[in-house]
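dumping these here so i dont lose them again. two proteins, back to back, each one seq then structure tokens. dont judge the mess
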Amino acid sequence: MNRELFLNIGRFVVLLLAQVSIFNNIDFLGYVNPYVYFLFVISYPFGSNRSVFLLAAFFMGLTIDIFTDAGGINAAACLIAAFARPVVLRSSFGVSYEFHTLKLSRTALGERITYVFIMVVIHHLVLFSLEIFNVSNILLILKKTLFSSIFTVLLCLLFIILFSNKKQ
């Protein structure tokens, strides 16, 4: 229990600092901006208390909002994605998720890509919809969602592979 808590706190702090100091400074062509802090929500332990998970996701988004002066859009996007996570897990992993025998680093690559992609698209769609907040700019919202999602998914999958526990 204590080990898992320290790992989650460490993951929270490292991803927060990486996002604020490195990834917020990347803005390629106005459409591509990676949001790797969301990896905290994606990789949060699957069998943990749902209320604690929702609070942690909210605080991750809120902390990013405080550092970037974003007005709560990251907190809302993280919270909505955290609410949607059980449905996405069930549709991506099926029976493995139902019995809580799931480790993200030990899943098949196709299932992992599906899960990360759906979660990131949900997060980004909410994030950019709240950021732009204008239905007449739906194409801009979709364009930013698509391009940022592709870059974020690639980085998240790379980090999952690089930092996965090699003991199996």
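---- next one ----
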Amino acid sequence: MTNDLSIVHLITQAGPIVKLVMLMLVVASIISWTFIFAKYKEFQSAFKVTNTFEKRFWSGIDLNELSRQIGSAHHSRCGMESIFHMGFQEYKRLKEQSGMEPMHVVEGARRAMQAQYTREMDVLDNHLPFLATVGSTSPYVGLFGTVWGIMSSFQALGNMKQATLALVAPGISEALVATAMGLFAAIPAVVAYNRFSNNADRLATRYETFMDDFTTVLQRQAHVSMNEKSSGS
């Protein structure tokens, strides 16, 4: 490739519309990569927290002690920890109220967990729509720049008496760079979106399974507490 057809030269010699398209694609790509690295760390942390918490929860630790540790001001809760903490705190609050049936206590705790589950999933899904948008639209944006560039090149050739490959090649090459940049922005965004969406689904399944299991544990505790109160009275 000659110096006249180098990537930098092609970009600098492109028309204003094609340059604008390229700039949009570069900005979209930079933002996408920023989100990709941030979400990668976020999902790594979410899986680590989930694995660690499940081991502690099923180790036989007292639930009051576990809630106290997680609820500490020095502990940053997230994911399954937050779901457990919100559910157990609501369970204890309702259980202390007089006249509350065990079923209502457990249902209240379940609603608290469901609300926190929704908030946690919103956090995990954050920025994923942007990656999906970049992945689906960037090739078409790049194609628009290519079509516009080729159209401008042929319009310029209309004023010349003789059109040769040497005259057509630079203009077409400039336009094709826009398509290449569109693909460069789209491919990582699509791969990352699919990967992160799969991770979010896996975590959602684990959160839902935990809520079902924890609800069962709370049901047993609620009935035991009711029986103890009945025996004491």
